[in-house]
Amino acid sequence: MTKPIEGFSKLTKAEKLDWITANFTDNPEAAKEVLRRYWHPDKKVQHLHDEFIENTLTNYYLPFGISPNFLINDTLYAIPMAIEESSVIAAASKAAKFWLTRGGFKATVIGTEKIGQVHLMYSGNKERLKNFFEEIQPRLYADAASITKNMEKRGGGITAIALRDKTNILENYYQLHCTFETLDAMGANFINSCLEQFAATLKDGAQQYSTFTETEKNLEVVMAILSNYVPNCLVRAEVSCPIDQLNVGEKISSEDFAKKMVRAVEIAKVEPHRAVTHNKGIMNGIDAVILATGNDFRAVEAGIHAYAAKDGQYSSLTHAEVENGIFRFWIEVPLALGTVGGLTSLHPLVKLALEILGKPSAETLMQIVAVAGLAQNFAALRSLVTTGIQEGHMKMHLLNILNQLGATEDEKVTLTEHFKKNAATHSAVVTAFKKLRTS
Ligand code: MEV
């Protein structure tokens, strides 16, 4: 059995490759070859990648594609997307084209409030804690001034610090619930630095607060950390058109199509099993843009799913209605994004993705990302309530299957032609491939 290793992080990259392949792969030379093949030929770029994370062995590539023809608030965008799943870009592009001739997407940022919390345990007198907080508040801002100075110059900073009594949910539990405006930065480092300073000021201030008893002076700071649940960092994106313009041309009348779309959303609103898949489709669009633009998809995922459950049951992120002959379809999602800082100026592809999007502000990026999610959901529901998704999906998936089977370029051309007229299920592709090989 392989023994644990001491000091792995201090090994050179070559030594790391030797160790991992010798101990955890069947064919170390072949494994090393795979790892090396994905090194970037430009040493500078590779060095950048090496330093993004710890113990880098190689790079993990995802396809980076473009979904064109998105008309958002009267500006035309081609949206970069990084994703491994076939059909997502095709679906987004189809939805973009559909809405291009129907007024495009309208998007509005509803709020940009970021949140961070200092979590406290305090078993003393509540009134004295409240008074202490009132007195220490100006010092919380003052002690963080060196951190907030630049952000304030640009118009951002700490917007509020509140003491919250949470003892009804956990004995002795209080919070400093803090809100921030971080402008074009996602702001995680800024927020966490402020919060850690608040924690230090709080501890020090409590020690010196003569009204406190000795026990109260030792109030416990458990942790200080931003929250990825940002329900007031919210964006709305919408499409609408008269029902008679909803001609999707798939053997269904515009009226029936509108009704079915509304039904599909209603089901996702009330049925968590469907809601999760419905929202997963939305995240296909959202995550792909988040990744391409170097944002933190884990933060966005966690925050969005919490938002989807905010009323007590996991539910649809999109909404649909037909009113006075108008079909309206919209999404509201919390998105804490950045277009400066983090990877945005470091990763060459992220920089390029932002350039393709016209170097957007964080607010514009919020709008673009929400639109990508809405477009994805529109495309998915459109397929689901008309032809079903397998028809389009399997055709897109065909190339993946053929690549897995090791098909040559000629075989791919022949089989792609064949599956224009036949259902491209996995087993049908395998059978046709074998038949072609043996013929
Ligand atoms: C597949 O990645 C996403 C869908 O399942 C979304 C949906 O069902 O709405 C097609």
TrEMBL record:
Chemical reaction(s) catalysed: (R)-mevalonate + 2 NAD(+) + CoA = (3S)-3-hydroxy-3-methylglutaryl-CoA + 2 NADH + 2 H(+)
Keywords: NAD, Oxidoreductase
Entry-linked Pfam families: HMG-CoA_red
EC number: 1.1.1.88
A single GO BP: coenzyme A metabolic process
Alphabetical list of CDD domains matching this protein: HMG-CoA_reductase_classII (cd00644)
Enzyme class, first EC level, given as a word: oxidoreductase
SUPFAM superfamilies assigned to the protein according to its UniProt record, in alphabetical order: NAD-binding domain of HMG-CoA reductase, Substrate-binding domain of HMG-CoA reductase
Coiled coil: none
Pathway(s) it belongs to: Metabolic intermediate metabolism; (R)-mevalonate degradation; (S)-3-hydroxy-3-methylglutaryl-CoA from (R)-mevalonate: step 1/1
Superkingdom of origin organism: Bacteria
GO MF, one annotated term: hydroxymethylglutaryl-CoA reductase (NADH) activity
Family affiliation: Belongs to the HMG-CoA reductase family.
Name of the protein in question: 3-hydroxy-3-methylglutaryl coenzyme A reductase
Lineage start: Bacteria, Pseudomonadati, Bacteroidota, Flavobacteriia, Flavobacteriales
